[in-house]
Specification:
single chain, D-Maltodextrin-Binding Protein, domain 2, 3 domains, nine-stranded mixed beta sheet, two-stranded antiparallel sheet, 13 strands, 42% helix, rod-shaped
């Protein structure tokens, strides 16, 4: 038996007043109980119990050890109950990592509804466009846009994230609207730095032919929100997630161009460290987010009229 088992047996013996009563309560033989007590006393190198044929009593060391042992076992019970509660109900702190643009544009507006449904869950949100280390950062779930690297992480695909090429109406009035991917060479392109090959924008025409536009411009940034704001101000043209600019395009603050070409479309995943024993708070969050994305269609391409 392990050390904790010996301590539990000792506490049972003291609380029940005899080895026989403890043996009956724990479903063990009296011999197993006696050996556990002998092991415990040998390890502590002190006598804990005075045993006679008629009575059992604690030594001074035994009394002190009994009080601390009972407190320690109560803490173990409390810890198991806390884990049981986390296992059975969505509760506790949920640490989420997500790209800044996704967190600000899509995730933040949903958190109120999520916490109204799961009031025992507290959100700890880490916004970072670079992939976070889930283990080192103690992150429960991460939202990742793009191809996943091979790893031991478990991934659940939520949707495909459509992209669009956009700029401000004032910029296009001054510089003209590109009619083909090749025309982008004559424009000031605002480039997202975290994509592989950031200076190559790949577009596909209606016939399925791929066009690679080698772009350059005055800004390279690792945050899509920054590029959107720069485009709003008339600085240039950018390629970014359609969800990020959908409202701006509908309101006329931005204008989508080259809409007869399909821009890149990349997977959106929720990733976590384990599939077995997945905590309810993680499952609830991922299910909630997946349901919203599926029902809203927010990750899809811009409508043809945009």
């Amino acid at each position: 038996m392990d050390r904790l088992s010996d301590v539990m047996i000792f506490v049972q013996v003291v609380e029940r007043g005899s080895l026989s009563a403890a043996a009956d309560a724990m479903g063990m033989s009296r011999g197993v109980i006696s050996k556990a007590l002998a092991r415990l006393e040998a390890r502590l190198q002190t006598r804990l119990l005075q045993r006679t044929t008629r009575r059992l009593s604690l030594t001074e060391a035994g009394a002190a050890f009994f009080e601390k042992s009972r407190e320690g076992l109560a803490l173990v019970d409390a810890a198991e109950q806390a884990v049981s509660a986390l296992r059975d109900e969505a509760r506790g702190t949920l640490r989420v990592s997500a790209p800044a643009s996704f967190a600000v544009t899509l995730l933040a507006p949903l958190l109120g509804a999520f916490q109204a449904r799961y009031p025992a869950v507290q959100i700890d949100l880490d916004m970072n466009d670079r992939y976070a280390d889930l283990v080192a950062g103690r992150i429960d779930v991460a939202i990742r846009i793009g191809m996943l690297e091979d790893s031991s992480l478990v991934a659940r695909r939520l949707a495909s994230c459509a992209h669009a090429i956009y700029g401000s109406p004032s910029y296009f009035r001054e510089r003209g609207i590109p009619q083909s991917p090749e025309d982008l060479r004559n424009h000031n392109c605002l480039v997202y730095a975290n994509y592989d090959g950031p200076h190559d924008w790949v577009l596909t025409d209606a016939a399925g032919q791929r066009h690679i536009a080698h772009v350059n411009g005055s800004m390279l940034a690792n945050n899509s929100l920054v590029l959107r704001e720069a485009a709003r101000s008339g600085l240039g043209v950018s390629l970014g997630p359609a969800y990020l600019v959908r409202d701006d395009i509908a309101a006329g603050r931005l204008q989508a161009v080259l809409t007869n070409y399909a821009a890149r479309e990349v997977p959106l995943h929720a990733v976590f460290t384990q599939r077995v024993h997945l905590l309810p708070k993680v499952r609830a969050f991922v299910d909630f987010l997946s349901d919203h994305i599926r029902s809203s269609g927010v990750m899809g391409p811009l409508p043809p009229s945009a």
